[in-house]
Design goal:
The complex is a heterotrimer of chains A (243), B (96) and C (326). By secondary structure, chain A is an all-alpha fold. Chain A is built from nine helices and no strands. Chain C is globular and about 65 Å long. The chains are: A mainly alpha (243), B alpha+beta (96), C mainly alpha (326). Chains A and C meet through helix 1, helix 2, helix 3, helix 6 and helix 7 of A and helix 3, helix 4, helix 7, helix 12 and helix 13 of C.
């Protein structure tokens, strides 16, 4: 597929935010029927549904939601590499949730306080996201400070996903955000939760060594291709059909 | 194999809107009160059914025993004068 | 005050006869309790196992609107399972015990979920036919003699009203869509129709538990009566969909004022029930695996709660009462 260069705001911004929400929602949807306890089936689905709702609004700002979701090639997706990472075990999912929901919380707070095409959406989403962050924080405490096994799994997950956190704070064209302040708030909040969970903030590199970039530049990790293939195949198998 | 630690049972009470009492909605399992609240929010208010939630450990509830049905409640049943319908008021008298 | 066993039994019988509800701490015959636990557990298990065939399509849903609907529906099924396990719990049987019985094959779930979802249209057929049959079964259960079960069913029926409609709407879109979509819809209806009729259970004269359950007002209508009701409802709905029901013997019987329909293949029913359905092994394996792989998570949360009770971890700050922002 041929995708026009992503330049004019708010398209780049809407795609970045919308793709983050869409892709993470899809990943969380993969938990259905596999969650560690029934109550968590309901909780994870709630979060997935909130994110899918956000994605649909954001993508619709700049085009047809289904065309954008189902007919773009991998290189045209602008989501963070963090959100496309496979669910792994529950610790990996919670670490991903903690990193991302904290990011989304401070990002949407800034957007809600500003005056842009995203103000209204952010004002509504910030309440949802606050709950997602609360969910992630509570589970981080329980896994980090639960049993020796859960502590080890949670520490490993936080470490493994750390390298995907750097690109969250690279400016996105069309978003009026104080990225420096965002990063500071994020680091302080995540460090606080991890400390209470008897875990430490990882200190490894926060991005890959590849200079070409990452998700915001349409460069993704290998697990993303199969995920998209699965998500898009039915829609693409019936060109022009309505559902 | 399977978990040996069964999470305790909690009773959930939901205030459906301001001005109404909390009413019993059901129960759920959770490891502690904080998680019980959150599970209750996800389970019992996912269609906007509530504005406030209480969770109470099921083990903390003391219930009247159905065996005591008669001694417990019978005496209340024979005091009809506690109810306004006990009193006859002439027809046409208003605001009573 | 009558405190003898006969007195209790008489009080129970009188309450059931007067259409009053039996509540958890009331005296009840052990067989009534056992029968309820069996039925509620099977119902709860069906909700939980029933998530799988539909969850199979969440990742492939062909539009974002459909994806949201399907996620919400599968989520509801988890919620309904929880309501039902809670109802069973009021009879003194914990969820862990019931799940263990499910995982070891000592308790059953509805056989319908042992059929595979092969195409997207199957999601529609499940909503229309499987949920339709379930609702026909469940609406009378809202008046079941056992209070907690009846209350759970009221909540479930209320929430489920969208399940059937979304399935019907999904099939309608396919039926009115491209020829390939129409064919997909017809194929799904062909495969799901007969298993849906089996959901009402064996014919009345072969049903092991029916008579006693009806006497206790756990059940309100016979299997055959509900099955007939379902067929009569579905025929005009299928016409409106523009899809055929795969039964050459299906026709209106003027005299009875109801539809006649063909013979159900009870041999298939019994085989699937015995564990030889296309997905029996797969469903239970996935369920067992999710439970086993989640054990360390449940243990962690329990350990954390124990530490906090013991005071070795400071209590989380925050209010005890959560005022939702809704």
């Amino acid at each position: 597929m041929n995708d026009a260069p992503v330049t004019a705001p708010p398209r780049a911004a809407a795609l970045a935010l919308g793709d983050d929400a869409l892709v993470l929602s899809h990943r969380l949807g993969e938990w259905a029927g596999h969650a560690p306890v029934l109550e968590e089936e309901v909780a994870l689905a709630n979060i997935a549904l909130d994110l899918l709702g956000q994605a649909r609004i954001l993508l619709s700002l700049v085009g047809d939601e289904d065309e954008l979701a189902y007919l773009r090639e991998e290189r045209a997706f602008r989501n963070l590499q963090l959100v496309e990472q496979p669910n792994g075990d529950f610790a990996q999912t919670i670490a991903r949730q903690l990193y991302f929901s904290t990011y989304q919380l401070f990002l949407y707070r800034q957007l809600a306080a500003g005056d842009s095409a995203f103000t209204g959406l952010a004002a509504k989403a910030v309440k949802e996201v606050a709950y997602h962050q609360d969910h992630a924080a509570h589970w981080t405490l329980r896994l980090g400070d639960g049993t020796a096994e859960s502590h080890e799994r949670m520490a490993r997950a936080c470490g493994a996903l750390w390298r995907y956190t750097g690109e969250m704070f690279e400016p996105v064209e069309g978003l009026e955000v104080d990225w420096r302040a965002l990063e500071d708030s994020w680091r302080e909040s995540v460090a606080g939760v991890l400390e209470r969970a008897t875990l430490t903030l990882p200190d490894g590199p926060r991005s890959g060594a590849w200079r070409a970039g990452a998700g915001r530049q349409g460069l993704h990790t290998e697990p993303f291709g199969p995920m998209l293939a699965e998500m898009q195949h039915l829609h693409r198998s019936h060109p022009g059909a309505s559902w | 194999m399977s978990s040996s630690t069964d999470w305790p049972l909690w009773e959930v009470f939901v205030r459906s809107r301001r001005g109404l009492s909390h009413t019993h909605a059901g129960s759920l399992h959770a490891p502690d009160a904080e998680m019980a609240l959150r599970n209750a929010r996800d389970l019992y208010t996912r269609r906007n059914e509530g504005v406030s939630i209480w969770v109470v450990p099921s083990s903390a509830i003391t219930a009247s025993s159905p065996d005591e049905k008669d001694p417990f409640f019978a005496s209340a049943a024979d005091k009809p004068y506690r109810h306004p319908t006990f009193y006859e008021i002439p027809e046409g008298v208003k605001h009573l | 005050m009558e405190t003898t066993a006969e007195g209790f039994e008489a009080a129970f019988d009188a309450a059931v006869a007067a259409d009053e509800r039996i509540e958890p701490r009331d005296w009840m015959p052990e067989a009534y309790r056992a029968s309820l636990v069996r039925q509620i557990a099977q119902h709860a298990h069906s909700e939980i196992i029933g998530m799988q065939p539909e969850a199979n399509w969440i990742s492939r849903a062909p539009s974002l609107r459909r994806k949201a609907i399907l996620m919400a529906k599968v989520q509801d099924e988890a919620g309904h399972g929880l309501y039902l396990y809670s109802a069973a719990e009021t009879l003194g049987t914990g969820r862990e015990e019931l799940l263990d019985k499910l995982h070891t094959g000592r308790q059953k779930y509805s056989s319908i979920f042992n059929y595979p979802t092969l195409t997207w249209a199957d999601v529609g057929a499940i909503g229309w036919l499987v949920d339709g049959a379930a609702i026909t079964n469940q609406v009378p259960l809202c008046r079941c003699s056992y209070g907690p079960y009846a209350r759970a069913m009221v909540r479930i029926c209320k929430e489920e009203s969208f399940h059937q409609r979304q399935g019907y709407e999904l099939l309608l879109a396919l039926s009115n869509g491209t020829p390939a979509q129409h064919e997909m819809a017809q194929d799904a209806v062909n495969r799901w129709w007969w298993p849906s009729l089996m959901m009402f259970g064996p014919p009345d004269d072969e049903s092991a538990h029916s008579a006693q359950s009806m006497a206790w007002k756990i059940k309100r209508h016979s299997n055959d009566e509900l099955r007939q009701r379902f067929v009569d409802i579905c025929v005009p709905q299928a016409e409106a969909l523009g899809l055929a029901l795969p039964d050459p013997d299906l026709r209106w019987n003027e005299e009875r004022g109801r539809h006649d329909f063909g013979a159900i293949d009870w041999a298939e029913f019994r085989e699937v029930l015995k564990g030889n359905g296309p997905c029996n092994e797969q469903r239970i394996t996935q369920r067992r695996r999710a439970h086993e792989e989640g054990a360390w998570v449940r243990d962690a949360a329990a350990a954390y709660a124990t530490k906090r009770r013991a005071g070795s971890v400071p209590a989380e700050d925050g209010v005890r009462m959560m005022e939702a922002t809704a």
